[in-house]
Amino acid sequence: MIFIQDPGIQPNTDGLPGLPEFRHMIGALLPFGLAVCVAVLILSAAAWALGSINGNAGYASKGKFGFLVALGAAILIGSSNALVRFFSAIQIG
To answer: Transmembrane stretches, by residue range (predicted)?
Structure first.
């Protein structure tokens, strides 16, 4: 039987200097991540379409894979704040 022990450590939001600036910087990086995902999504969709039109299964497959990866990354980046909020509220033990 495994018992999960509580180490008694709680998050400290004012323990390090510069934490508000770090949060501001991360918040500013989110739109850049989404913009990169949109660019990769467009390029991958174009590669998928051109590969399908020309009968090149390799390009079509890589374009489809890139499209799905970019779509998944955009979903994770867009929902990252909600995911962290959800999982940080889970009580273990």
So the answer is: 29-53, 65-87
